[in-house]
Amino acid sequence: MTPSRVVLRAIGVQFPVLDDPTVVELLALREAILWCLGQGLAFVRFEGDAKLVIDKIRRADTGDSRMGVVLEEVVNHFDSNPGFSVRFVGRRNNRVAYLVARKALSVYPTMSRAFNFQAWLISRM
């Protein structure tokens, strides 16, 4: 049996004011991919609860103008890194994702740059 390493990483990333949660989800995934690449990780399974985003990535459907070039960039990362995969995990089956989504929805659309997501997540674990 080969050893495996589990990495759970939640990062507080500040994005300009966005009004589309799917774009925010995609940007967060891109940040996670870039972090994993920077760490030299070759085999990573990304999980998320935004089914629309994950379906588009898995189908390499880059025609969505809302997600634009970011979606294309993410799809290219998955294409060029065969050890990377993405999987949908519903919020009810993932406690951390559920808590994060619930908190995000509670502050949307009044989110401000002052909200410290990382501190909030750590306080819930």
TrEMBL record:
Entry-linked Pfam families: RVT_3
Organism field: Linum trigynum
InterPro entries, sorted: RNase_H-like_dom_plant (IPR044730), RNase_H-like_EbsB-rel (IPR052929), RNaseH_domain (IPR002156), RNaseH_sf (IPR036397)
Domain of life: Eukaryota
RNase H type-1 domain: residues covered: 18-104
Gene3D superfamilies in the cross-refs: Ribonuclease H-like superfamily/Ribonuclease H
A GO molecular-function annotation: nucleic acid binding
Protein name as catalogued: RNase H type-1 domain-containing protein
